[in-house]
Every structure is written in C-alpha cells, then in structure tokens.
Amino acid sequence: MYYIKLGIRNIFRNKGRSLVTLAAISFGCMALIISGGFIEDAITQLREAYIRAILGHVQIHRKGYYQKGGSKPFQYMIPSSQAVLQELARFPQVKNLAPRLEFSGLLSTGETSIAVIGQGVDPERERHISTLFVMTEGSNLEVDDEFMVIVGTGLASAVGLKAGSPAVLLANTKAGAINGLDAQVKGVFHTVHKAYDDRAVRVPLKMAQKLLETQNVQTITIIAHDTSQTDELRSALELHFKGRGLDLEAVAWHQMPDADYLLKTIAYNRRLFLILNIIIIISVVLSIINTMNMAVIERIGEIGTFMAIGYRPREVARLFLVEGAVMGLLGGVLGMAGGYVSARLISWIGIPMPTPPGTTVEWIARIEIVPEVFGLALAAAIATALAASVMPAMKITRLEIGEALRRNV
Amino acid sequence: MDMGERQPAALSDLPILREIQMVSVERASKIYGEAPGFAALDGVDLAVYKGDFLAIVGPSGSGKSTLLNVIGCIEKLSSGTLRIEGFAVNSLSPDALAELRSAKLGFIYQTFNLIPVLTALENVELPLYRRNVPARERRQRAIQLLRDVGLERFASHTPRMLSGGQRQRVAIARALINRPSLILADEPTANLDRKTGLEIIQLLGNLNRRTGVTIIFSTHDPHIMRQATRVIEIQDGRMPAPGR
C-alpha cells in the first residue's frame, strides 16, 4: 500500500512529464480499443452476414451428410413435417427455423446453360432465417410462388438473367432421371459471399421437391436468438437426438464446410489485430521509456537516501515498478474512457468501407465495444508502463549508494 | 589530535562506556578511480566508543564525508578493516549491509535528503516501512520523535513547507526512528545559518546525553565542533594524530 501511495504521489510530482506519459499510454490504449473494436466489428458483420444469409447458426442433417451427402444426396433426407419443426422450435435458444432442400443442377436460358447450386426454401420461414439476404432486383420468393426462382448477382450477370426472364431448371430426380421445370426469374439477390452469388439459385421448397421428386429435405436451418448461443444450442440438440435415438446431427455454423472462407477471414483478422497490438505496444514503450528513465535520473539522490537508510536496491526498484504500474493503470483507465467515447462517436458517424475480397457488398464499419478488448487494453497499458520501468529499475539495482547520495547536492 | 572540550555530563565519560568500542577503523584506505587513483582515505585509524559525540573536522575535500560513508557502510574500503560493535563488516553482502544500516545506523545530511512527496511524519516513518512495523506503532514513534524535535504541529507539512532548520530536525527524527546505536551526520549544519546550526548541534548533543546514542558528525565550523565531546582532525585523507 505504501509503495502505491508513494507511486501516486511521485506521478503527480512532475505533472508535465506525467501528462505526456499518461497521454502516450492513453492513446495507445485507445488505439487498441478502436482497432480491436473495428476488427471485431468487421468479423461480426461478416460472420452475421454469412449466418443470416447462408449458413444459419445450426443446421440439422442426417448423420454423415457432410461426408457423403454430396455424392448420395437422396440417402440423407429428413422429413420436413410440421411435427419435426415444432419439436425443434421448443428449444429455448431457437428463434427461427426453416427446411432447405439442396440440389445441384443446370439453369438454362435457352442460349446458355450453367451449373448451379440450388436451394429449395420455404419462403415464409426463410424470410426469418435469411435476414441479411439482399434483393438487388425484383423481389424475394413469396408463399404463393410456384415456379419462380431468384438468382445470385454473379449468376444473373453470367447468363444475362434479370427479373422476369424465363429459365429452365434441370436436376436429377431421386430415381436418377433428369427432370426439368420451366420457371421465371423473380429477382436477383446478393449475399456477402461472392462465390455463392455466382452459382446460387433459390426456388420455393415445393418446386424443388417437385423437381427432385421427393417430399423430404436435407437440412433444417436454425437461427438462435444470439450467435453466442450457437454451441449451447448445438449441444442441446445433439443430446436430444441421442436421447431419442434419432439418426440426426446438429452442426454449428463454424463446423460447416461452407464457413471455411469465413473462418479463415476471422483468423486472418485476428492475427492482423495481434500484429497491430504488438506495434502499438512497442510504440508506447518506446515513447514512455525515456520519461521513465528521466524519473530515475532526476531522483538518483533520493534513491541514494532510500538505500542509505536501509532499503535494498530491489526494494527501491520495486518503488519505480509500482510507480510504472500505477501510471499504466491511470493511463489505461483514461484510455478506456477515451476509447469508449471515440468508439461511440466513430460508430455514430460510421466508416464507409469498400467491398472486401471475396464479397460483393460495400459496408459501413463501426467500432464494436468489446469488453475483452477493453480488458486487454487495460492489461496492455499496465504491462507497457511496467515494461518501460524495468530498464530504469535495473539501473537502480546497479547504483553505488555513495555516488547516488552525491547527486543530492 | 584530540581537540574537544570534554563535557562532564557526557555519557561517554562513564568509564564503562569507554570500554565499549562502537566503531573501529584500522589502516583504512579508500581509493577512487583506476590505479593509481585518488586516495580519499589513506591509512586511517579511528576508534569510536559507545556514547561518543565525535566531531570529524577538516577542510573541504579532506575525506570527512568519505570516512562517514565508509563507517556508514555506504562505501566499501579499498583496504583496511571496519568493525561496528566488534563485527568486521568488510565482507558483508550488500543485502547484509543494507540490513545493518537499517537496524543500527541513522543518517543525517547537510542537504537534509528528505523525500519531497512525503510529509514530515511520513519522512520520519520512512525507515520503518520496510521493517514491517505495525502502522500504529510506526505512527506513535514518529509523532513522539517529531515532538522531541519540536515539530509535532508540522507533521503534515511537506519538506517544501519547512525551513532549513525544521527540515534538519525532521531528518534527525528520521535518523532516530530505528533506535540506532550510531548516528552519522555529514555536515548537518552546513546549509543552516549559525544560530540554527548551533540549535541543531545542541539538539544532537542533548540526544547523545539523554539516550547514549553514539553520534559522529563532520564540520569545519569551529563553533559547531566545540559542542563535541571529542574532535578528530582529518587532512588529505589522513589523520595527523591517531583518532583514539
């Protein structure tokens, strides 16, 4: 306690120098909070865009769907009865759920044909799942739509489709025959995922079932109340399936093969943030180490007095380390306050961002308030100030007392 | 050369105390810099007895401060032997020397050497913080000492708010807080006017007579040296006559 009291008083001893040091620590702390909040916002926006346009939080499949479902899709069907959907809807984490029937096929315009990934969706239920699904032309599927399709922007421009264009959708039926249905393009959409938009076709579930000659679906996509509930929901569903002896599996968004790009982007951004953190911390250490050094040089006589009256060099060094830690704590608290205000202000204004690689949309960046980043910034502020105090403290342990005392004159 | 006027009431006059050697310095040399270097002390012999109120006198640069620093275990001898209460301290580790200074010695400097961010009371308490003395006892001892030096009502003042004489009184209280057996005062009156300087040295003399604490101080002021029970002269790092 005594060391802390002395540390605080010494900080206010040379107000000008302490202000400069506090400012450096605070700005470093703010930089960490803003950069961390920016990257976290980018990750959150990208993740939510994937989840709420393509993946959902959790998908229910027949076991082994991801391993073999691609080559034998009809062996991995699940019933799409209202009873199944109602049973799943009873889980408290479930906000919305919708069945999907996936297929691959050909979309023909008469002049050209192109391979597509098709998705049969329940228009009413899917509206609550794909909330970040953006229509750029025409309109989304409705409950009453029978032979309507919507296509991704990349696909539309590749084959020259627009709202109102006729198209023929071809796919293999469950029996192995090729089936085709005439349809009309109702709209053009985009998601965050360009590769998906280049090949995706969405059709009403009934049309897809007619095309494939099945009454079942492969996937039930679930949106939880919050992304943080994903794993909790997945575990609860797994437990439920096991208890009921059902041959089903629940897959969280981050376990899905389609999330590969998203996960790599998240890992990339997190690594970027780490490197940025290191650069900021080194900059702060370098900018305050001189002032910490000056504090020792100015007080060498005083250090000599401490040692003359019996303080060991490491005890005096501890005084300076505590002073550094207190300075870091003060700077960190100021930086957190400044970071919070700046983050709110920047988020209120918003930063227009260009289209990121692999996506199709421009976006408005904001600064997310992430408690963990605030904690990290505070810890970094204290660690930084401590690190800057280590060298001066080591200098103290090498001081000759007599020489130090002579500096008192 | 023993120049001091003996004060009949001095504890060091008691025969029993004359037998107890507080400090013994034998053939002490302190050389600064690389060979051949500068000899600040050159073959000094000195014995200080329990209860002594000893003045070391000499011109500037004669080695007074170096001798006090050596006796105070602040600087190591280049050669020779230093004993405190009979124990040779030459070979003690820096930590052991720090412990010895903390337990046995008190220091007073001409520049007072108070910690500017601490109050008078906290400055007096300073040596006790590292010795884990309970807060209540620490405070009681410090207040009593401030009362002894006439500064109780200045307890909450920082050094900047005190006069030179008051600062030196605080430094004296700080030197006494560990109940040391030896106080070393390096020109304690040099930064004070003559009247205040005399008051300070009389305060030290009274402490010496009242408590028996051994005090060694350096000065070049004849008025101040007259207050000592023994006076030792040092010139160019040597003692013209044995300091015994």
Q: Which key features would you list for this structure?
A:
heterodimer, A: 409 residues, alpha+beta, 2 domains, two-stranded antiparallel ribbon, 14 helices, B: 244 residues, Rossmann fold, five-stranded parallel β-sheet, four-stranded antiparallel β-sheet, globular
Describe the main β-sheet of chain A briefly: 6 strands, mixed, barrel
Strand content of chain B: 15-25%
Number of helices of chain B: 8
What is the CATH architecture assignment of the domain at 51-75 and 93-233 in chain B? Answer: 3-Layer(aba) Sandwich
**What low-confidence regions of chain A span 5 or more consecutive residues with pLDDT below 50?**
none
By secondary-structure content and strand pairing, the structural class of chain A works out as alpha+beta
End-to-end Cα distance of chain B: 9 Å
Strand order of the largest sheet of chain B: 6-7-8-3-9
Question: How do the SSEs of chain A run, as a string of H and E?
Answer: HHEHHEEHEEHEEHEHEHEHHHEEHH
Contiguous uncertain segments of 5+ residues of chain B = 1-9
Shape of chain B: globular
Explain the overall architecture.
- The complex is a heterodimer of chains A (409) and B (244).
- In chain A, 54% of the residues lie in helices and 20% in strands.
- By secondary structure, chain A is α+β, with helices and mostly antiparallel strands.
- Chain A has 2 domains: 2-50 and 262-406, no CATH class; 64-246, no CATH class.
- In chain A, strands 2-3-8-5-7-6 form a 6-stranded mixed beta barrel, surrounded by 4 helices. In chain A, strands 11-12 form a two-stranded antiparallel sheet.
- With 244 residues, chain B is an alpha/beta fold.
- Residues 1-9 of chain B have low confidence and may be disordered.
- The A-B interface holds A 2, 6, 9-10, 13, 301-302, 304-313, 315, 400-402, 405, 408-409 and B 69, 72, 74-75, 94-95, 98-99, 101-103, 106-107, 109, 111, 113, 115-118, 126-127, 129-131, 174, 178.
